[in-house]
Write a structure and sequence with these properties.
Blueprint: E1 4-8, H1 15-25, E2 31-35, H2 48-52, E3 56-60, H3 62-74, E4 81-85, H4 93-96, H5 101-112
Length: 114
């Protein structure tokens, strides 16, 4: 299965970035968003912590979900919700059901809330 990796500063994350991510998600391609750790300057007005401050973590698969829960608990973080989407592995029957349409529908609902 194809996957998409987006590496950037995301200073700030804006609708154009979201459009780019959605292009892959709408095709059922899992995405990973990586944030470059850049020093604050005129071109990078936000710290990395500001960029990655999260209200929601989406665990891709049960293991990632469990690790996210552990990290939140161990660091006494509050105000972060955790949701899970099925892992898109070919070994996961849900990922393959209806040629991936079920996985795509679940993932889109969890990611976009729609």
């Amino acid at each position: 299965m194809k996957r998409a990796l987006f590496i950037g500063r995301w200073q700030p994350l804006h609708p154009g970035h979201q459009w780019l991510f959605n292009q892959k998600l709408e095709r059922g391609v899992p995405i990973l968003i990586a944030v470059r750790d850049t020093p604050i300057d005129d071109s990078n007005p936000y710290s990395t912590d500001d960029v990655i401050s999260a209200e929601k973590i989406i665990g891709v698969g049960k293991y990632a979900n469990k690790m996210a829960q552990n990290a939140i608990r161990e660091n006494n973080l509050e105000g972060i919700t955790i949701e899970e989407i099925p892992h898109p592995s070919p070994a996961n029957p849900l990922a393959n059901k209806d040629k991936g349409a079920v996985w795509k529908k679940i993932s889109k609902r969890v990611i976009t809330g729609k």
